[in-house]
Design goal:
The strands form nine sheets. Strands 14-21-20-17-16-15-22 form a seven-stranded mixed beta sheet. Helices cover 29% and strands 28% of the residues. The radius of gyration is 31 Å and the shape is globular. The chain has five domains: 84 residues, Winged helix-like DNA-binding domain superfamily/Winged helix DNA-binding domain (Arc Repressor Mutant, subunit A); 62 residues, Beta Barrel (OB fold (Dihydrolipoamide Acetyltransferase, E2P)), CATH 2.40.50; 66 residues, Beta Barrel (OB fold (Dihydrolipoamide Acetyltransferase, E2P)); 275 residues, no CATH class; 85 residues, Nucleic acid-binding proteins (OB fold (Dihydrolipoamide Acetyltransferase, E2P), Beta Barrel). The chain has 17 helices and 34 strands. The protein is of the alpha+beta class.
């Protein structure tokens, strides 16, 4: 039997400069790791047991086999060696390296996002100096975290952002730090004294990263936003935190001023003229950017002509202009609790393009001939000019629909509502899923302090507009696809993938705890079974939480040139056509319609896909900014209610405690599990809850509870709660 030849020279091997490596400053465990790794590297083709390694390195004289295995396991976890079966180890000549985007949570750990694959867990200790959103290069480690692959950051390829918003705090006298507003950053920034630029402790500031050469990153103050806690300061800070500047660059404003409001007669002659047909808008009471209008008339054959008219932004905003560049950069308007930051300058968004009453406006239109059952007999899509006869807000339109008001155009509104209901029924019959979203708005006093939180309601007037916009979006998408379908022309699609089967399985298991039986083993009937479940839970105490879990099981809707359909709506083709004042993809689809009408087929799908990826990301960021502003006002609303008790629903469960959403105002706070003193509660991840060790009391997602407001923190936008009791039944 031939003995394996082991190269022991690694113990005295010299480095590249020919000098013995200095190991005097290493701790014993670091030295032992270095010895083992040197041996394994010198014998990279071999496989060895822990005892063989101990013998070859001489460590058997100092360490027992258990300690040797511990060191080997650490080296394997770091990706330096590989553990094989039957207690054998092998040198890893090349670690698996991956590059991707980092998603960091509030604890400081996170994931490398892997497209079409399993995300890689990154512990806070393995982050190095990476932050949320950074593009990083990682090394795949051999250890796993709860079954997930784990990695370690090797290099920051690209910073997601270098500008940060936060509050200045003074540490040791004369030493200043930035406490970032972004809760995904769980460390402070150092502000050199000569980089304060006049900022004082307690002020909210906008800063720029200088370097990260020391223990803490260093930043420079770019501007002082105001006193922390001031309403305008905080709203401004939220916008900057998420990358939205409320001010337009000077070159954009200059270009906007040059736009003429008067419509040339030559342009009117090119368009289908709807100025003599009844047309009106229905929007929120505080809206100024009216994207869409509806026209209505009865045809001679008894059918109805319904026109969905959309502001023709593409006529005014030319590709490559300064306005267009800024619109693309923003990609969307942002709606905070008290203000709108538009995608386009005010002259366009609120004046020239806005479909204001009693003004002639240029529009892009989708016009349909419908019968009494809302069946489509004909359609036309093209450029038009309209005159809006009236402006409704949703409340006014609702009163007319319900017959509570003698407002204008009641007969027409009620007929449109009847047709919308039939379109809705058709949509649900073909697999569209109905989720009820809980949204809030605030009633503010003269000092901008919230005095009331109001739940928004989706009534018939809201749904009427929604259903006709969905009709236009669906038909425009199908129209472009049908122009030349083999292969189809490049287009903008709003896509929504099928749910992840594992998430559906978790949903199935979760609802079973409430006594509901549902099976998602048949992909063709997933939407049908989801709708049946949502109908069963409607009006029950657990409705909100089951809908929340169901929504979490869904994929995210995004923009793409690659059409896979829209699962949630049940549409084979779908796009966004109806809001070009506030969404860049809608402007793109308008330009495509014009280009294809003019037989211009030179679109670059690769460039389009990148533009749509950017729009999807900005859409998500804008939603986060909106939620941050809502959260801030919710915390402010409860500031003076410390000690008061409220009824709520357990809306989230993590290992450290419970999130509670209050019933009356939808404010969400946190109850640390250790603060509940009547028992020792054990976390049960699979049931989304906790169970008392002695009492067997179960606290799980969806349970109704009473809590007491214990404290609020406006800077962190958090609400602390104390558990009072669970409401049975």
């Amino acid at each position: 039997m031939t003995k394996k030849r082991i190269n022991k020279s690694s113990r005295s091997k010299k480095n590249k400069r020919g000098k013995n490596q200095d190991t005097s400053s290493l701790r014993p465990d670091q030295l032992w790791k270095k010895q083992i790794l040197a041996f394994m590297r010198a014998n990279r083709e071999g496989t060895f047991s822990s005892k063989q390694i101990a013998g070859a390195t001489g460590l058997f004289r100092k360490l027992d086999n258990k300690k040797i295995r511990s060191i080997l396991d650490k080296l394997a976890a770091e990706g330096n060696i590989e553990y094989l079966e039957r207690g054998k180890y092998k040198y890893m000549s090349q670690a698996v390296v991956m590059t991707g985007k980092l998603d960091v949570n509030r604890s400081g750990s996170g994931y490398l996002l892997v497209e079409d694959g399993e995300d890689i867990y990154i512990s806070s200790q393995s982050m190095d100096k990476a932050m949320h959103g950074d593009i990083v290069k990682i090394k795949l480690l051999k250890r796993r975290r709860r079954g997930r692959k784990e990695g370690q950051v090797l290099e920051i390829v690209q910073r997601a952002k270098v500008e940060f918003v936060g509050t200045v705090e003074e540490g040791v006298p004369g030493t200043f730090f930035l406490i970032p507003d972004d809760r995904k950053i769980n460390f402070d920034f150092f502000i050199p004294k000569d980089k304060l630029n006049g900022a004082k402790a307690g002020e909210k500031v906008w800063t720029k990263l200088l370097n990260w050469e020391r223990r803490s990153p260093e930043v420079e103050v770019l501007s002082v936003l105001g006193k922390a806690g001031n309403h305008n300061t905080e709203m401004h800070a939220i916008l900057l935190q998420y990358g939205f500047n409320p001010n337009f660059p000077p070159e954009v404003e200059i270009e906007a001023k040059k736009i003429k409001e008067q419509i040339p007669a030559s342009e009117i002659q090119k368009r289908n003229d709807f100025r003599d047909i009844l047309t009106f808008t229905i929007d929120p009471s505080d809206a100024k950017d009216f994207d869409d209008a509806l026209s209505f008339r009865v045809l001679e054959n008894g059918h109805y002509e319904v026109g969905i008219h959309i502001a023709d932004v593409s006529y005014y905003v030319k590709r490559g202009s300064e306005i267009d560049k800024e619109a693309f950069h923003r990609a969307t308007s942002v709606y905070l609790v008290d203000r709108t930051i538009p995608m386009l300058p005010e002259k366009l968004s609120n004046m020239v393009c806005s479909l204001r009453p009693h003004e002639e406006k240029l529009t892009y239109s989708a016009v349909f001939e419908l019968d009494d059952e809302a069946k489509i007999h004909n359609q036309w899509i093209g450029r038009t000019i309209i005159f809006s006869d009236h402006r409704f807000d949703y409340e006014q339109a609702q009163e007319v629909i319900e017959g509570k008001s003698e407002g204008p155009y009641g007969e027409e509104l009620r007929k449109l509502n009847d047709l919308a209901k039939k379109l809705r029924a058709q949509r649900f019959g073909k697999g569209s899923i109905e989720f009820e979203s809980n949204e809030v708005k605030f009633e503010l006093d003269e000092n901008d302090k919230p005095v009331r939180v109001i739940k928004k309601e989706m009534k018939d007037s809201n749904k009427l507009i929604e259903d006709f916009m969905l009709l236009a979006n669906r038909r425009v998408a199908a129209h472009i696809h049908g122009l030349f379908s083999n292969p189809p022309l490049p287009s903008v699609y709003r896509i929504h993938d099928h749910p992840n089967p594992e998430k559906l399985s978790s949903l199935q298991q979760f609802v079973s705890h409430f006594g509901y039986e549902v099976s998602f083993d048949d992909n063709e009937h997933t939407s049908e079974r989801l709708n049946a479940l949502l109908e069963k839970v409607h009006g029950t105490p657990e409705q909100n939480v089951i809908e929340t879990i169901a929504i979490r099981s869904m994929a995210k809707a995004i923009y793409s040139t690659k059409n896979i359909g829209h699962f949630g709506l049940g549409f084979q083709y779908y796009t966004h056509f109806t809001s070009p004042i506030r969404r860049y993809p809608d402007l793109m689809i308008h330009r495509l319609l014009t280009a294809y009408h003019n037989k211009e087929y030179n679109q670059n799908p690769v460039v389009m896909e990148e533009e749509l990826r950017h729009s999807s990301e900005k859409e998500r960021t804008a939603a986060e900014a909106e939620r941050a502003s809502i959260k801030y006002k919710q915390v402010e609303f409860l500031e003076d209610k410390i000690g008061e008790r409220f009824t709520g629903i357990i809306s989230g469960v993590i290992e450290s405690g419970l999130f509670i959403e209050l019933e009356d105002n939808l404010c969400e706070g946190f109850v640390p599990i250790h603060s509940i003193e009547d028992d020792y509660y054990i976390f049960e991840e699979e049931t989304y809850g906790f169970k008392g060790k002695d009492t067997n009391t179960v606290l799980r997602l969806g349970d109704k509870v009473v809590v007491e407001i214990a404290g609020t923190d406006l800077q962190k936008r958090t609400i602390d709660m104390l558990f009072v009791e669970k409401i049975s039944g």
